[in-house]
Amino acid sequence: LAGQQKLTHAYCTETRPYNQGSRLTAYELVYEKIPSTLITDSMASALLAQQPDKIAAIIVGADRVAANGDTANKIGTYQLAITARYHNVPFIVAAPSTSVDLNTASGKEIHIEVRPAVEVTTLRGPVVDVNSISKDSNDVQFKKIEENGTMVVETVAVAARGIGVWNPSFDVTPAELISAVVTERGVVLKED
Predict the structure, then answer these.
(1) pTM listed for this prediction
(2) Would you call 192 a catalytic residue per the annotation?
């Protein structure tokens, strides 16, 4: 889309708890020089409500596509599909054809792994030089280990000790919420 000048701006979610969106998707968008904005997972509905004319579609990946079109993807995908439906925005799944599993009849048959609680109650990342933090910029300086130049990475707690945690790694989006599935082999549109 960006190469065809059809993508003027992309929004990506942080994809908690493992932050694939802020660590990987945001990196790729910046690397490819695609104008983009990182938002928290819980901001998507507000974004569509406040800026409906700026969002042409929601595009997500899929780890598995069942025979009936249900898809399993990172947790939070289902809520994006509900938001898209409410705001009449196309919800498109883009995945390699190897993700299509015709031996799995529906999303009900997809096993959803529950991940360790510590992934929700802590954050891990490079240590930032606090003197480089500015409320007007996200351009921070990282502390480095002097000997080999690698970044210092630490884990910090972000939740109350003793809180219960439910941490499924994926959710299943029902086919009826999906506008189209796109693979390298082509596009399957939802039948009306």
Answers:
(1) 0.89
(2) no
